[in-house]
Request: fold
Amino acid sequence: MFRLEARTNTPAWFNLALPLLAIGAALVLCSGLIALAGAGVIEAYGVMFSASLGDSYAITETLVRATPMIFTGLAVAVAFRAKFWNIGAEGQLLAGAVASCAVGAIPMPGPLAILLMAVAGAAAGAAVALVPATLRVKFRVDDVVSSLLLNSVIFYALMALIEGPWKDSFSGYPISPPIEDSANFPVLLEGTRLHLGVVAAFLAAPVIWFLVMRTTLGFRIRIIGENPEAARYGGIHVERVLISTALLSGALAGLAGVGEVGGVHFQVMSDISPGYGYSGIVVAMLARLNPLGVVPAALFLAAVMTGAEAMSRATGVPAFLSDVIQGTALLAMLVALLFTAYRIRRVGTAK
Amino acid sequence: MPRPAPLIEMRGISKSFGAVKANEAVDLSVAPGEILGLLGENGAGKTTLMNVLFGAYAPDAGEILVQGRPVTINSSADALAAGIGMVHQHFHLAPRLSVLENLLIGIPGKSGRIDRAGGLARLGEIGRQHGLTLDPDLPVSALSVGEQQRLEIVKALFRGARLLILDEPTAVLAPTEVDGLFSALRSMAAQGLGIIFISHKLNEVRALTHRCVVLRHGRVAGRVDAPASTTSSEMARLMCGHEIVPPARGPSTPGAAVLTLDDISTSRHSGMALRDVSLAVRAGEILGIAGVSGNGQRALAEVISGVRAPDAGRMTIAGKIVSRFSPREVQALGLGRIPEDRMTTGLVTNLPLADSMVLPRIGTDAFSRNGLLRPDAIRAFAEAQIKAYDIRCPGPMTRAGALSGGNLQKALLARELAFDPKVLIVSQPTRGLDIGAARFIHEKFLDMRAKGCGIIVLGEDLEELLMLCDRIAVMYEGRIVGTLASADATIARLGLMMTGAEGHG
Reply:
């Protein structure tokens, strides 16, 4: 018989071991599904690996995929540190995409356009995140529910725009007009899609780490998340810090949308995000809310996503498997987090 | 007198957490009708031992016998089945459910239905037997702390406990409620139940128990067969391993007033409101505020700490009028604060101890510049305080929640005293602390008094207040009903004033 016993301390190597354990468990569990779909497990995972990390082009594709998830992962990690339950990164991403696309369509010199797109996108994401944060601070509305439901509001508002007044008159499809060519993000490697936003994402992670771990704002974010009462007695304006956190989180999610518009799609369409906002939650949890951990976690999910499509073509296993792996990895990680607080102990059975 | 066969016997119990030996070869037994005192300083292993008995931990070695038969207790359900009930320090009740519903949780009724009538009958019976009456239909959230504890005891008896473990039951009770608890425990013992009573308060242990086991560093340091005729200092020596002398409060010459309240009133926001409270604390003086909890102490502490603005009245700190009533403002004027509840309003248990130690002053130059933290300064500060106050922990990055209550209280004291406050507000400063830690805290207060700090102590423990304070004011229903110089005050007189019996003294 086994039982759980409370732990007094958590070893440091758990930070690395737990996510790896969760990922391993998810891959093992999902191999059952691959077998069920009639494909070889080793072969399927092999194709997945080679298509996402097997050559330099595949690696650049994985990096491009990881970029929005690094931003949304950082957005969620920052918010969750303060226990601001921002499930709305998806909506904030879409708002960032719309705002940056609108700015990018205005003719102006390239560098200025890119800068203004980023500013507009971040501001739009922050504005959306401000809604659930204000509702929580002023009226004690549950932020999980309000931020989640706001995603649908933003999505259908975007649909209304691109089906109606903002519809591209040349293509006839429900997509927005493209941004100016000068506003397209520079490509860093000829013949790939590796764009400026990828570098920005990789730089954002250490910047956010520094902000959370080394600034007074970050200190206050961590404190209000763990014990708002002690924070209040300690002279921290809990509401003000919560609003700042929401603005920061929303801005980061908005930047995910900016990167997709400026570096990948150059316009806004209904499927501009295949759920990068929600994936951000998985990324942040796998990273244990550590901004530096967000990068490898996002790379893992991106590799699964790019690999799944190739695997689907090669073996006939539906590409939806990538969603299943993501979901299973999150659940496995939540279970694994139990071991930070408890240890398993074997006890003798009753005589 | 030969003792009857033990109800419960623990033999050679050992339990380690990593390198820490929490219990080592502990023997303990309780006979029917016996009240056993379990004594020891914080961290001596009392709670671990009882958690082993109640099935929360599996022992590394040793065995447990119930009425002579060895048993394995792997869960609280096993413990209950073996007739062992436990009343924890923190209650395990569902606040929105009624008294009766809380009693019936986990008790299978007939064919899936709740046996309400049977439950009511048993509740009435237990109430009559031991004087533990409770209104079955009141929600738990409407009960006082004392009544919630009574419900926990009734719950254990309801489940057929023949041995009842009480972990520091008097820590949460007002003095008047303690008498009621003791008569109930005596009545239960008279009917053949066994009781294990865990406490720091030696006078209570001497008044109530038949026998005592004293733990120190996880081992049995001594056994006392006649607690009533053993002196408190003898027991204290067993617990600490050395003599404990209460600190002496020398004479002092109070200076100018460092904290004044003039006609402060608050609305009835949560708990008792304040009505026209006026008081003054002078430099080098300790002022006690005595009162049964719930008579406005909380509102008073909130106003002075700057987390609640009064509706009327004026407050000054070090001669300056407090205008905005924010924690930052009162702190900047020179107020230090040791909260009543370390875990909820003082510390952040999930983060490193160092974070909690710099929390109130993180925005000052000592710990940050231009919005950037100074990690080295924070670490150095925490390390220096850990050393200066002998806070037992592996280091400043230890999770605060892993420390014992006494060490957490030292950490809170360190973080406030390091900045030489002009006024210190303290609530229940030694609640739940062992003698050694309490002694240390008292000495620090007297040191601060000698240095010219004005201290205001809110508390219910009259012995402590009489020992520490120069003057004692009594609060009743949101008012100060009288102030006595300690020399004129007695426990009896203060106790009477606390019930509102005496007017302006």
